[in-house]
Amino acid sequence: MTDQGGGSSNRETRDAVAYVCDQLDTIRSTLKQYNPDGEAEVERVLTALAAGDDLAEPLRSLHEAVLRAGDAGGVLGRSRGSKLIGELSGMPDERVLMCPLDQCSRYVWPGAADGIAHCRISRQPLREERL
Question: What does pTM read for this prediction?
Fold first, then answer.
């Protein structure tokens, strides 16, 4: 990614990646229904993520493809509503599982999400962080 300084575009990108992660199966299904080759835009995002490349253009292209497929919200801007798995406990010294690539704003509370322990996109184990 080009904006590593924590600016708003970095946050927007991380939120968009979180939305894609959360809705990956739905996005794939929507694009396949619209166009048999529609998943190419999803693959561009996944490839850019795996390579650590700038995500702005692949996310913008995916957003446009999802809009063309009839999803009025697309990918960008909707991510603020991404679901967080688990509940806040308010306990100090809490642990959280986060994106292993550090490119996504989603997180999972250990033990709260039916054993989710891997990133749905990279398939790498989630990294544990202490709050």
Answer: 0.66
